[in-house]
Amino acid sequence: MHLTLHLTDRCNLACRYCYARHGTADMSFETACAAIEKCATGPDCGIVFFGGEPLLRAPLMWQIMDWCEACRPGRFHYKVTTNGTLLDEAFLDEAVRRGLHVALSHDGARAAHDAFRVDSAGAGTFEAVDAALARLLERRPYSPVLATVNPETADRLAESVQGLQAKGVQYLILSMNFAGSWTDAALQTLVKEFRKLADWHEENYRKERKFYFSPFDKRIASRVFPERSNSCRLGMRQISVGPDGRLFPCVQFVGRAEYAIGTAVAGIDEARREALYRCNERDKPECAGCALERRCHNKCGCLNLQTTGSLERIPAVLCEYERMVFPLADRLATRLYRARNALFLQRHYNPAFPILSFLEDLGAS
Asked: For the whole model, what pTM was predicted?
């Protein structure tokens, strides 16, 4: 089980595509501890600090980590997802010392980033976030970067992805703003950009440039291991804890009282969690007969809720997107497998690849 602690509703930015409901609520230390006591089951548990902007509550982060290690040393691992604007050297020093992993949101090219990731005055944040990225990668070269693609910035996709790699990013998680206004023209632009990136990513493999690109590499994994479910298993693998201590099955449900599955004090309402899980797992009628049904993200509860308002309906644009990206990923996998590309075979067929890759890079440095 993994816990996402929403330390605050507050955020120092006003990103134009943000789904979060910003307010003034803050989580207390007591609420965080109660949630961990009730929900952190099993021998290993991940604690994710989230918001709002969690670095607004940095002292609380350290306090929670101290408490966790005092109670159950070595059982927890920690991660924070941040917009980067408060990511200074002092925070990074403490994060490295404590083993806190940092994920940073950065949308790539300046024009793409500043179109949506703005402060409360509407000013772009590219300069501040780009500087934070450089600081982070200097200390933690494998830190993941999260980028969002919008219809208005689709034409900057290849530029953004390639630019982030040039800055030293090695692990890029790309998210589509499916709630955006995706026109036919925007989707046509998007597929052109993905075709460019498919050729470019093949070149990454051939030149042994270690760059993980989620739209292709995650879908290649679903081809290599078709027995692995692509379901998010809503509420079963992770739980989000709102600032007030209410429990939710995932991050985009926080603040929606009708989807609460318990409280930090009372614990998980197992019947409610099971009911939401079963609802989300039901096959979608519109997916019947589709060759991609078991591989695509049609059972992502957060995505469906955000875009259609229901766990049981999927957005039409998701179908367009998956039918666009899967053939490119499968073609890439076929070509690299037939060529017996060493990096491709290691990444997708050797479970020890992350450790071996780290040791290889350590030896080369």
From this structure: 0.94
